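Lab intake sheet, docking and co-folding queue.

SAMPLE TYPE: protein with bound small molecule
LIGAND NAME: magnesium ion
LIGAND FORMAT: SMILES
REQUESTED OUTPUT: full 3D complex as structure tokens
PRIORITY: normal
SUBMITTED BY: R.K., bench team

The fields below were copied directly from the construct record.
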Amino acid sequence: SKFAYVRDFELPDNLLLGTFILLRIDGHSFPQILIASHRFTENHGFAKPNDIHIILAFGQSDEYSFLFRKTTMMYNRREAKITSIVCSLFTSSYIMKWHTYFPTTTPLRYPPCFDARIVLYPGIREVRDYFSWRQTDAHINNLYNTAFWALVNKGGKSTRAAHETLRGTASSQKHEMLYSQFNINYNALTPAQPVLSNGTVADAGKVSLVQDVPRTNSYGSLSSVPVPLHSLVGPEGDVVSPKLREKHKTGQESTRIALLHCDIIGDEFWDLRPYLWVEDC
Amino acid sequence: SKFAYVRDFELPDNLLLGTFILLRIDGHSFPQILIASHRFTENHGFAKPNDIHIILAFGQSDEYSFLFRKTTMMYNRREAKITSIVCSLFTSSYIMKWHTYFPTTTPLRYPPCFDARIVLYPGIREVRDYFSWRQTDAHINNLYNTAFWALVNKGGKSTRAAHETLRGTASSQKHEMLYSQFNINYNALTPAQPVLSNGTVADAGKVSLVQDVPRTNSYGSLSSVPVPLHSLVGPEGDVVSPKLREKHKTGQESTRIALLHCDIIGDEFWDLRPYLWVEDC
Amino acid sequence: SKFAYVRDFELPDNLLLGTFILLRIDGHSFPQILIASHRFTENHGFAKPNDIHIILAFGQSDEYSFLFRKTTMMYNRREAKITSIVCSLFTSSYIMKWHTYFPTTTPLRYPPCFDARIVLYPGIREVRDYFSWRQTDAHINNLYNTAFWALVNKGGKSTRAAHETLRGTASSQKHEMLYSQFNINYNALTPAQPVLSNGTVADAGKVSLVQDVPRTNSYGSLSSVPVPLHSLVGPEGDVVSPKLREKHKTGQESTRIALLHCDIIGDEFWDLRPYLWVEDC
Amino acid sequence: SKFAYVRDFELPDNLLLGTFILLRIDGHSFPQILIASHRFTENHGFAKPNDIHIILAFGQSDEYSFLFRKTTMMYNRREAKITSIVCSLFTSSYIMKWHTYFPTTTPLRYPPCFDARIVLYPGIREVRDYFSWRQTDAHINNLYNTAFWALVNKGGKSTRAAHETLRGTASSQKHEMLYSQFNINYNALTPAQPVLSNGTVADAGKVSLVQDVPRTNSYGSLSSVPVPLHSLVGPEGDVVSPKLREKHKTGQESTRIALLHCDIIGDEFWDLRPYLWVEDC
Ligand SMILES: Nc1nc2c(ncn2[C@H]2C[C@H](O)[C@@H](COP(=O)(O)OP(=O)(O)OP(=O)(O)O)O2)c(=O)[nH]1
Ligand SMILES: Nc1nc2c(ncn2[C@H]2C[C@H](O)[C@@H](COP(=O)(O)OP(=O)(O)OP(=O)(O)O)O2)c(=O)[nH]1
Ligand SMILES: Nc1nc2c(ncn2[C@H]2C[C@H](O)[C@@H](COP(=O)(O)OP(=O)(O)OP(=O)(O)O)O2)c(=O)[nH]1
Ligand SMILES: Nc1nc2c(ncn2[C@H]2C[C@H](O)[C@@H](COP(=O)(O)OP(=O)(O)OP(=O)(O)O)O2)c(=O)[nH]1
Ligand SMILES: O=P(O)(O)OP(=O)(O)OP(=O)(O)O
Ligand SMILES: O=P(O)(O)OP(=O)(O)OP(=O)(O)O
Ligand SMILES: O=P(O)(O)OP(=O)(O)OP(=O)(O)O
Ligand SMILES: O=P(O)(O)OP(=O)(O)OP(=O)(O)O
Ligand SMILES: [Mg+2]
Ligand SMILES: [Mg+2]
Ligand SMILES: [Mg+2]
Ligand SMILES: [Mg+2]
Ligand SMILES: [Mg+2]
Ligand SMILES: [Mg+2]
Ligand SMILES: [Mg+2]
Ligand SMILES: [Mg+2]
Ligand SMILES: [Mg+2]
Ligand SMILES: [Mg+2]
Ligand SMILES: [Mg+2]
Ligand SMILES: [Mg+2]
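RESULT FIELD (auto-filled):
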């Protein structure tokens, strides 16, 4: 898509050849972990209201993106520190919440893991294009998956044959195939399953570093795979009002995170959230 | 200690100021995770006998160090890829094995997490000094903790007062205090608890990327904290013989990892393992 | 000064310890150099009207700053390429123009050299603050030098004693000293020697990569040290009009570079040059 | 060639997109330059006997390679500092010595310039392979040029036609062509012009940062292009003896640099110079 240029901002980080690579993992604030009776919210640095680093999160497929404040000095902006700690905490939360969000699914049989990287963007334009790029990817995946499972479940094809049939087809051809072969009007379908088509965006003016897993799903057997991100939503389930935000700042109120499956490519989403770009948010 | 110079090989990785930090986490080989019936060993790339990346591991306190082959091309030596995936897999394994290794301990109440970094060393000398540096740290910690808990458990001091008493004391002063006040001969004590004093080193000619957690302990209430690394040991529990190594290479035998609590500062440990420095190991 | 924070954008670039450093210098577009009869403007890539990389330059003391277009893809933005080539070309021009600008000065007795570095700034605010920082430095240097030479030439002090006298004095103390001891009103003095106080800014809508040396001077024996940057000025010696810029773009006119010794801390200079921030300039 | 793998040690250094690039050049030890009566050797930091950074240099075509001591802490190993200063000093020396080495050649009409980069190599093997790679390049260039000028000067071809004829030909084909068409036995020719075939290596146990230009030539009109590197040779013109080296260390003797056009791919050159790899050389 036209947004894919944001990928060009990624810089290579290949390590010098011919040298030993020594990787040290160090427990993060480890004594806290061991004092098991302490409450996470009391102990964990990320949760301090005046220490908001992540201002937006977006999940689709098996990937999750987190936008940090431009002026964050988290870990003095040390790349490996941020990358590894966020990735590790995410992994950790993902596992510990697995049963809560997938109670009917098989328990985890072996340890899942994630890769992580940081890319820097100098301006709002590139940040918005980044999220557009990822949501466009969700659209593409969802259309593909819809067509794929129609071929398999309704068309009786093997998964291999279904992939073969779809290889190289344009978006319009998939729409056409869904309609002519299976009488599915894709455009009428998607509003009913926005999480699949749009992914999930988490916004609370602030997003605390997620004990709960921002997990979205746009794949296969839908009913059996709930969306873990829902747990991040506050009682009212909606975008935190400026008033509420104020309370958070003064510590009177804990954070509410809204989970949305809306379009984030158009202007509307962003026009409603000018606070995202306020430096001292 | 005299080994601490290896720290100077760490290079800063602070990120450019005034730019947005965008962190993307991506599920690693995710379809494998979802096909829960598949066995990890069949699915997971790290486990291939001809694809050995990590050749030595050392754990002490809440930290674990992994030495990669000099010529490894794992993830094309991309720093963020290696750092984040190893850190994430380690985190994941740590949680999933928690109950196995700490059956009598309180279950995890909130997600633990780890930071990770890569440091490059150009030669064997620096690699050895690195491990000496970390084992020296284990010695220092163990002596401190022994003195600390003596003051608390036997001397009746509060933890605060115990820290106060020990602040700034030299190694010899701690030995002296243990002996005169509590009749403890520290040097006679440590051989009986090598894991505390020396940490744990895992070596199998190859170390597969640890489903099991290399966890060592040199702190407090010892009896209640078993050493998870033991699970990595094969049936015979000893260092893999060259013959066995050959079998691994030809795929006839699965990997055995030896867990040792021996000295790694002197030459003996290394003289016994010339295979560590063989490029095509 | 309050602008000095821009320094924090500099990132460390220390090289890994314990490795050999191999530096290769390669003649740039070398065949061109050897075909001595060819005119530089015909041969040199930088001079192409549609290939404007540097949009502003500022010189003071022995330092020169060059601002590149945000979107420049010069040498694919490879840091070492840009740094070394610009630094080398600058050095080269500096020497070859030495006699032209300093005809009465001793010829160069040994090779001068410059260091160079690149710092990235994500926004206009930081860029302006960078230039303010450097001009403030020129102010500070000029006041110091004025006081220093007054003490030496009029006060009969040795250079050592003059430095001693000035060490640690505030700006106001230097003003006061100049007035009370030497009857010099510093503020009345500076408008007559703007190059000393303000440095020199070179702007032409475009600044071709300077055959002529942007050399400014705010030191010592003024009359004997002319300002080489003057050679960069076109026949009319003034800021290039938008109309002229247009002609440059269409290739009808060669570039004129204006040399100014004006204030660049206030808004006026920048308000007159909106074209600096136009991406496709 | 089989040595070209050393190129893979180069790491990319592309700068973040969408950010302004600010390049500052700063006169290096500038007051020294201005005190024109001072002698370079007295003033210049590189020349101190106990401050030897570069231990070997090799030049061929328009490129020059400098090997630094593994343990050098020159400019605290800051990449941009080293790259730019060495490149700038080299450029500077190149121009100022132009007339001395090319007295009959046209004076420089416009400023030459060089790019520079640093590549790190962790071991001696890679360092040797690096130099082998560059000398192999000299061989290839010389054979090409010999064939090229034979076609032009003896075969009456235009330069364009000569390039056309040679495009894609193997080494053996060029040998054959030289022999059959022009009766030139290339292998008999090269010993008489070693500088062309082998390039020039400068070694003195130490190589001071070259006021004199290590310039080699393996191109065209030979007689008119002398080899500037000769000026680096001491009175005796040979490799500095260990005894002499000792004197240099104690400051009793100034440095002599030997210029050689010998083979550096085989072992002999290196076996004679064990001091290159002695850390405290
Ligand atoms: N009770 C107990 N404490 C341990 C054990 N292993 C490590 N610790 C504690 C001792 C230290 O306070 C701490 C490790 O020191 P660190 O320098 O890594 O500090 P911490 O993890 O708190 O902060 P960090 O995020 O790494 O900067 O964990 C254990 O097995 N039992
Ligand atoms: N069945 C199912 N599959 C999913 C779901 N979410 C993601 N996936 C699958 C679809 C894709 O095959 C895969 C994600 O694509 P990736 O490009 O991230 O590939 P993968 O994770 O295999 O490899 P990687 O280690 O990221 O290079 O995970 C889900 O909720 N259900
Ligand atoms: N006539 C003549 N040509 C030479 C001499 N030394 C080098 N050259 C030429 C041969 C090649 O065309 C060129 C060096 O090749 P490069 O790959 O460095 O190309 P060039 O410097 O043009 O471009 P670059 O900026 O380095 O990418 O210089 C010499 O002594 N005499
Ligand atoms: N006499 C005289 N001195 C000047 C002139 N321009 C600059 N300078 C002197 C003033 C300072 O001592 C020096 C510039 O200060 P720097 O901080 O750049 O120091 P320097 O170049 O000595 O060392 P560096 O290699 O840059 O760390 O050059 C000039 O036009 N005339
Ligand atoms: O975390 P510390 O204090 O034990 O020491 P470190 O790991 O060297 O410091 P950092 O984690 O800040 O790199
Ligand atoms: O950087 P990589 O190799 O993980 O590549 P990617 O851009 O994440 O693409 P993919 O979806 O193939 O992992
Ligand atoms: O300049 P070239 O083409 O001889 O080859 P290179 O120096 O390896 O290429 P670059 O200068 O682009 O790094
Ligand atoms: O980066 P350095 O060491 O050159 O330091 P600087 O900021 O240029 O300061 P100085 O004027 O001392 O060179
Ligand atoms: Mg730490
Ligand atoms: Mg820790
Ligand atoms: Mg994915
Ligand atoms: Mg990926
Ligand atoms: Mg994935
Ligand atoms: Mg620790
Ligand atoms: Mg090149
Ligand atoms: Mg060249
Ligand atoms: Mg200066
Ligand atoms: Mg400086
Ligand atoms: Mg200077
Ligand atoms: Mg070249």
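REVIEWER NOTE: Residues A 26 surround triphosphate (ligand 5) (CB under 6 Å).
SIGN-OFF: pending second check by T.M.
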